Amino acid sequence: MIRLEKFDTKDYSQLINSIKDARELMQFAGPEFTFPLTEEQIERSLSDKNRIAFRVVNVSNDSTIGHCQICFKDKFANLGRILIMDELLRGKGIGKQILTLLLEFILENSKQRNVELNVFDFNTSAIKCYEKIGFVINRDKKFVREMDSETWTALNMQLDLDNWIRKD
Question: 0.70 cut: is pTM over it?
Answer without folding.
Answer: yes
